[in-house]
Design a protein that fits this description.
Elements lengths: L1 H18 L2 H28 L11 H36 L4 E5 L5 E4 L1 H7 L11 H4 L3 H9 L6 E4 L7 E9 L3 E8 L1 H37 L6 H32 L7 E4 H16 L5 E5 L5 E4 L1 H18 L5 E9 L2 E8 L6 H4 L11 H7 L5 H11 L3 E7 L3 E9 L5
Parallel strand pairs: 7-9
Antiparallel strand pairs: 1-2, 1-5, 3-4, 4-5, 6-8, 9-10, 10-12, 11-12
Length: about 425
Amino acid sequence: MFKLLFWLLLAGVLGGMLVGQIAWGLVVGLSLYVAWHLRQMTRFVQWLSVQRNDPPPDTRGLWGEIFDNIYRIQRRDSRMRAKQQLVIDRIQASTAALSDAVVMVDAKGRLEWWNHAAERLLGFRAPDDSGQHVTNLLRDPRFVEYFEADHFREPLDIASHLNASAWLQYTITHYGQGERLIVVRDTTRLHNLEQMRKDFVANVSHELRTPLTVVVGYLETLQDSDEPINPRWKRALQQMEQQSKRMQNLLNDLLMLARLENDDRAVEKKSVDISQMLKSVSQDAQALSAERGHQIHLDTDPAIRLLGADAELRSAFSNLVFNAVKYTSDQGEISIRCWQDQNGTHVSVSDNGTGIAPEHISRLTERFYRVDSSRSTNTGGTGLGLAIVKHVLLRHGARLEIKSTLGTGSVFTCHFPASRDA
């Protein structure tokens, strides 16, 4: 580059000396130098404007290095784009082969891409539906509420809008700049199996109730008889009656749980006096405690009321309080507290018992889950109390929070949304 400038200026000086105009010779030399640069710039712009990966024009010096470096960068970028496109094609091909529907929507909820399973499960049509808002095509109010709520910690299970006998599970994940990925699974088989389980438990529990009632009745009749009972049979009859009543409690809990699971109707919004209910539950707990000497404290505002089902709420609170009585050592303390704030209504039951290890807490609301089976057997527990609490709270749009420390005690808190405040 500088060599070219040197030779042009030298030629200009020599030419100017021949005609006696050295200054004009320098001007001509500089003009040729600038013209050469303008020519290279024009060639550079023309080369960049070509969309093909053509090799750069032949030139020397600094411009030659610029052309060559740009060309190498273009080649490298082209190779990287080809690799990325190959990865994208493979991802799309593998996603298209999935049996689960995969749908990509932008930050405004408009459809960007979906696989073949989405066309089969959701009825999407390409390319007609591209750019449509997802709620224009999936109009089930439960999905619309789930999508717009923007809280996707739990999947949504609803019946298919294309086939009432099919069930779909929607899972939504955020990614990128507000985009969302929707994965839809066909859970019809699992739903049918779960329904079969519920029906089986409900039917068996109902069928066992009558013969068990007969057995308990005869046992009570035998024990209340005026005729003397053989001492060898007295203890056996007492244990039979005890275990029969325990089985009755189990069947009652199973039927209660089955009713909660199978009842798809919205929970009635009847105003419930929570303060009076907790007072009644506290008195029942004191009677259950009997001579064990528990100190049961109640702290609530008489003005607190909730919209819900009276019997279901009483069942949930009773299970929490009675569990505290059963699993708190003699002379222990149990506190029942109810309060309201901007987030809604909260009911907590705390005790100073032995506490629960962290690995058990996440499974406490599972049916028949026992932290200590021997302890539950001694107290007559059915293993369904917290499962009932969980389902009652779900039906009321509430959630159960469990905190426990070994050797210190446990706190079970029911959090009701503000929409349930009466």
